[in-house]
Amino acid sequence: MPIATVNPATGETERTFEPLGSQEIEECLARAGATFEHFRTTPFAERAALLRRAADLLDEDTDDIARTITTEMGKPLAAARAEAGKCAKTMRWYAEHAEGLLADEHPDQGDVRDSGGARAFVRYRPLGVVLAVMPWNFPLWQVVRFAAPALMAGNVGLLKHASNVPQTALYLADLFRRAGYDEGCFQTLLVGSGAIEDILRDPRVAAATLTGSEGAGRSVAAIAGDEIKKTVLELGGSDPYLVLPSADVDAAARTAVTARVQNAGQSCIAAKRFIVHTQVYDAFLERFAAGMRELTVGDPKDEGTDVGPLSSEQGRDDLEELVDDAVRHGATAVCGGQRPKGLERGFYYEPTVLTGITPGMRIHREETFGPVATVYRVADLDEALAVANDTSFGLSSNVWTRDEAEQDRCVRDLQAGGVYFNGMTASHPAFPFGGVKRSGYGRELSGHGIKEFCNTTTVWHGA
């Protein structure tokens, strides 16, 4: 795949980039390794000041970087500005909290004496150079939620971003440089996927994190496993959205629209499978479909647009194939189900609601990365949980119920890294983020995330 900005609203290639050569990659690796040796010893106050400066600069740059994001991957301008704001917020959160999150931990003194020691503690030390392989769908956020905790822990980063967002990738490296970080603290590598293996196998690289497809995760995990290097993977999702009899159906339907079409549906944690109790099914479906029909699809640079194009022609075509397969096998398109008229130049697809889904349809098993929702009717909570867990993914989940017993049951039985009640899944720096099953392993954000790339060190002193 070429490294290029292809505007998904028009299909036009606006700018191309040459990938780094082997000598340039070597220079980046050498710079990162050398920088880590002194950056790891910097005090938290110094790291925090740098990260706060980066957040301030990002605030100043919001309008410009939002336009770049919109041009590169099609996100509406309002959403792109919100993404930049979330990144700045997360930088400031880690600048404030990292020192406390990584403070020395002191075991019970009785256990220390029982070990034969006079004192002992646990210290978190940075691992080193971390390779981040990141996707295009949230081109700032996916990177910052790795970079902010990693830098505050004393690590340094190498970014291999998606090949369709090169200008955003270069902006990130420049942002940290302008904030005062040494160049080796955070570097963007404009390289193709074929270069990842050699970089990850380099002894100067200590660990890797990847957000992306299941296939990409398998590849990176296999290489890192062979090298015995730590990885964190956040892969696909097919998140369930359960609506049970005690739900506020109006609120559930309104929120369902946003949960499905955020980022044109191109989000791992977007709700994708809507599993609705038969008692409220008809009311929910009517309101949900009406909300999807009311959305404005169009130019993402138009402030009135709700849903922009998909990021690529291939992504639009893959989504279209899933819908067409479902309809051929008996599904009903309550709304949408085709490319919108008048927007032939870009990679657009109508917000779509499908019913009558059966296990034999591809869409029942595969992740829908676009504004397409599947709606299931279920008889009771047991069936709802069975449908919800009938997937290879386990990233997050959403449940609408006021019944505390049902809430407890869902926390116990839903196979997911998160359970969100009476609202939609959303990431926040204070809460751990990640999944189970083929959605990956490890956690980002919160104290759990910052410790993923730390050496958890036991320090023991004899009596």
TrEMBL record:
Pfam families: Aldedh (PF00171)
Residue span, Aldehyde dehydrogenase domain: 3-459
Keywords: NADP, Oxidoreductase
Superkingdom of the source species: Bacteria
InterPro entries named in the record: Ald_DH/histidinol_DH, Ald_DH_C, Ald_DH_CS_CYS, Ald_DH_N, Aldehyde_DH_dom, ALDH_GabD1-like, GABD/Sad-like
Annotated CDD domains: ALDH_SSADH1_GabD1
Gene3D superfamilies, per database record: Aldehyde Dehydrogenase, Chain A, domain 1, Aldehyde Dehydrogenase, Chain A, domain 2
Gene Ontology MF terms: aldehyde dehydrogenase [NAD(P)+] activity; succinate-semialdehyde dehydrogenase (NAD+) activity
Family, similarity comment: Belongs to the aldehyde dehydrogenase family.
Name of the protein in its database record: Succinate-semialdehyde dehydrogenase
Organism this protein belongs to: Streptomyces silvensis
Biological classification of the source: Bacteria, Bacillati, Actinomycetota, Actinomycetes, Kitasatosporales
